Amino acid sequence: MKQIVLWIGANAGGVSKTTLAVHIGYEMAKRGFDVALLDLDTNVSMSQFCGLDKDPPLEQTIAAVFSEDFDGNWPLLMPEWGKPKGKIQICLGGPVMIQVGSDLAVRNRREYVLADRFEDFPLPHQLVILDCPATLGNLNDVALAVATHMLILVELSPKSLTGANVLLSWYRGACKKLRLNPQPQILGFVPTKYDSGEAAQRDLLGQLPEMLSPLKIKCYPHVRYSCEFSNASGKGIPLHLHRSTHKAIKDLHPICQELSAILQEDKGDNKRTK
Prior knowledge:
The chain is 38% helix and 13% strand. By secondary structure, the protein is of the alpha/beta class. The chain has a six-stranded parallel beta sheet with strand order 3-2-4-1-5-6, with helices on both faces. Helix 4 runs parallel beside helix 5 (138-146). The longest helix is centred in the middle third of the chain and has 21 residues, at 158-178. The model is unreliable at 267-274 (pLDDT under 50).
């Protein structure tokens, strides 16, 4: 089975990582793909955005997957989002991941714990999305070691762009340290929370593709700022279900079209897409 394991991250908080993870996941499920969202972050955003328990017992979180005695029973939950063509399931993180990240420091093969779980107890989903912490620590090393593809989110501000450059340096160093072969493919940068009324953002949006071109990194069209993302998340549902005709939904289509194309490629083998 062809499978994408998509790392979604940034070197800063508040850039809509969880928002995009949830909405890309739902859009891909609408297109008929089975999707798993794995929450490696330490906050409760995923729980809130999916209308799930904000304080689940440890055994119902991804912390159980990191346990030494994990038996392959992935604690996947299904939000009450109707019946898209594909299946979407969530493996919650939250504050329990603080201890998991700390414990990883003394684990054997710590960077490969999640990769080993994927090898020993494969998930059946065509798309697995990793919602990663904003800090580049142990949990992001773990995510990088299992990822096949990456999306890097960035706000259109000098501070955020500087942070993204640091993230790229971390990526190159971590891939070398972990001897990843092949390395996770960077699908591209995604400018988020774009406000066309801000002249500074318009300028940076125009400059970003030129900045990325020498690095051979794609720049996706922006995802606009809209309070309706927050309103939908507050109800624990995607924007598709909150306001099905909202223009921001279409901002996600270029990303989902590329993911769909990768998954639909016929390469005549059963290996995971790298």
